[in-house]
Amino acid sequence: MRRLGWLSRWVVLACGVGLWQLLADWRHSAFFPPPSTIASAMHRQWFSGPASHLFLTPDATGNILPSLGRILLGLAIIVVTGIPAGLAIGRSPVLTDFLDPLLQFFRSIPVVTAAPVFIALFKIGTQMEVATIVAGTIWPLLLNTIDGARSIDSVQVETARAFRYSAWEKVRWLIFPAALPKIFTGLRLSVSLSLILMVFAELIGSTDGIGYEMNNANQSFDLTGLWEGVVLLGILGYLMNGILYLVESRVLAWHRSARQGAS
After folding, report:
1. CATH number reported for the structural domain that contains residue 110 in this entry
2. What are phi and psi of 204, to 5 degrees?
């Protein structure tokens, strides 16, 4: 059944691409190039390099890799800061009541409107781009971690107290594992947002990256080049979510087993 589900998803994708190809060939619109043209341009520009460089061209290593580096750095920062902060706030009713209005206020501010602030603080460059990614992606992870830490079963808390767990043992063996499902939910949302914010930050004034290439293609009226960036972002988003899903399925295998046993 799992193999059939995997096959059906690829069949749907192939049908969608085939329909796109037929419509593009029928319309012959410069604004809507066919997938075959986009794939050929992507191969020529990014994936026709030597095997020793994993078939990546200098254009790919000079633009795709910096964008991925900014995304990974931003996600690493929110994981290191957002998860501990979320666990601490979620387990403290005082902190939750005190900080919740502030968190909801700052979460509601669109990152786009804060771009001038980041430019003034960090200037145009990698620091500004990473700051933009962090500012927009930390909220799903932080708020889901708070919710996960706050919703731990009181019986489990009393059991840990009866066994005289230290504060660190409670975090390691009770709070963090119980909050993991919510943490992964927030992380999936953050990964999706990171791609959007990466492109936005690079469109503002970067000297390299996928967003920079898309901006150049737009200014030179290279519509196929613009579609190359769109398709590449879709592929990267799919791969990143797929990797995260594999990690989540391994890490939370115990959680699914416990739910199945309870049912």
Report:
1. 1.10.3720.10
2. -65, -45
Q: What is the CA radius of gyration of the chain?
A: 22
Q: Are 163 and 128 in contact (CB under 8 A)?
A: no
pTM of the model: 0.87
Tokens at 146, concatenated: 């708070």
Q: What share of the chain has pLDDT > 90, as a percent?
A: 37
Please state, in angstroms and rounded to a whole number, the distance separating the CA atoms of residues 128 and 67: 13
Q: For residue range 26-49, what is the model confidence (pLDDT) as tens digits?
A: 888 878 889 999 999 999 998 888
- What total of structural domains would you count in the chain? 1
Letter for the amino acid at 56?
L
98 domain-assigned: yes
Alpha helices in 28-125 (DSSP H): 35-45, 58-90, 93-107, 115-122
User: Which residue, among 122, 111, 103, has the nearest Cα to 198 in the 3D structure?
Assistant: 111
